[in-house]
Design a protein that fits this description.
coiled coil, 3 helices, MdtA-like_BSH, 4 domains, alpha+beta, conserved putative lor/sdh protein from methanococcus maripaludis s2 fold, Elongation Factor Tu (Ef-tu), domain 3, six-stranded antiparallel beta barrel
Length: 355
């Protein structure tokens, strides 16, 4: 009996204490706050609301230019001159065409008057009267068109139709120009816009009328408000970006064409209401996005659903589900499980840390 009790006692003394659960090292860092009032920052440049080429409406040889790029011009100011000898034949042709059109109109008017009188006496049919009236209408339109062509052929001087600035020179003195060929680039005075190129991954988050703040590096401390006026329907074939035009409110003389602008599109959230995480930290719980959160008390993992505001190229903007300072798994999200005890470590490379 004594021997048996001794064996039992020795066996109980030989049992080891249970080992503590081993913690798995994971790359985990606190999430950072971002300004939720800013939906995106872009670089752009200042343009006029209306930019267009200026050209003659008739062909001829350019004999004089009265303005140079960068000059301010007034409405009605002469800008360039064609050689009057060149369009003289066009003027003669236009005059002959006008004379012929007026003659056809005179004949059509006389024929209409005769047929209307005969129709009242039942001497011609309704169909014949309608044909005569149609011929008269065609002759009248032809006369008006020939008159406008003759008026255009008389003008050999290019004038500014609005106040503005000459932005470029596209023809030289002595050059023979075709009708409609550009002579100058022109930007109207008044409204100003800023053009920005937006990546295709972010253009879906921009809407017409969205507010923005704009700063000019050339004028520190001076900001402008703007609103999205137009979004290009297709991406540029070379850069694969979308051109977004923003109308600038209360533009002043300091907004020079071509200036560089820093544009901050406004979002729907107040400042510091969102957090940003690396794209590698995002996990999916079924069809819903989620992240692995390290609980502060026991350093165990908890899979928490989140609401994504915007997907970027390297990061994700989270609108709800996370708080500033909470530690989440940044990499290797598919190699961990719920309730697993972990030891947070920093990324091995500094460039992998969230900016």
């Amino acid at each position: 009996m004594v021997a048996a009790m001794s064996l039992i006692w020795l066996a109980g003394c030989s049992k080891k204490a249970p080992e503590a659960e081993a913690a798995v090292p994971v790359i985990a860092l606190p999430v950072q706050a971002v300004d939720g009032a800013v939906a995106g920052r872009y670089s752009g440049d200042v343009h006029a609301r209306y930019e267009m080429p200026l050209s003659f409406r008739m062909a001829g040889r350019l004999t004089a230019r009265y303005v140079d790029p960068g000059e301010q011009v007034k409405q009605g100011q002469p800008l360039a001159q064609l050689d009057p000898a060149d369009p003289s034949l066009q003027l003669a042709y236009a005059k002959a065409a006008l004379d012929a059109a007026e003659h056809r109109l005179l004949f059509a008017t006389q024929q209409r008057d005769r047929d209307e009188a005969q129709f009242k006496q039942n001497l011609i049919s309704q169909l014949q009267l309608q044909q005569t009236q149609d011929n008269y209408a065609s002759a009248l339109a032809g006369r008006d068109q020939a008159r406008q062509q003759y008026k255009l052929a008389q003008s050999t001087t290019l004038v500014a139709d609005h106040d503005g600035i000459i932005t470029s020179r596209q023809a030289e003195v002595g050059q023979v120009l075709a009708a409609g060929q550009a002579v100058f680039g022109f930007a109207q005075s008044g409204e100003r816009e800023v053009y920005v190129d937006v990546p295709e991954s972010r253009v879906g988050g921009i809407t017409i009328g969205q507010a923005a703040m704009m700063n000019l590096p050339a004028s520190p401390g001076h900001s402008y408000t703007a609103r999205v006026r137009e979004i290009a329907p297709a991406a540029d074939a070379q850069s694969r970006t979308y051109l977004v035009k923003l109308a600038i409110d209360h533009a002043d003389a300091s907004l020079q064409l071509g200036m560089t602008a820093d544009v901050a599109l406004q979002g729907s959230k107040p400042a510091d209401a969102m957090v940003t995480i690396p794209a590698t930290a995002l996990f999916h719980q079924g069809e819903h996005p989620a992240v692995w959160v390290v609980t502060p008390g026991d350093s165990k993992l908890d899979l928490r659903p989140v609401t994504v505001e915007r997907y970027g190229e390297r990061d994700v903007l989270i609108a709800a589900g996370l708080k500033v300072g909470e530690r989440i798994v940044m990499q290797g999200v598919h190699a961990v499980s719920a309730g697993e005890k972990v030891t947070p470590i920093a990324p091995p490379h500094a460039e992998d840390a969230p900016q």
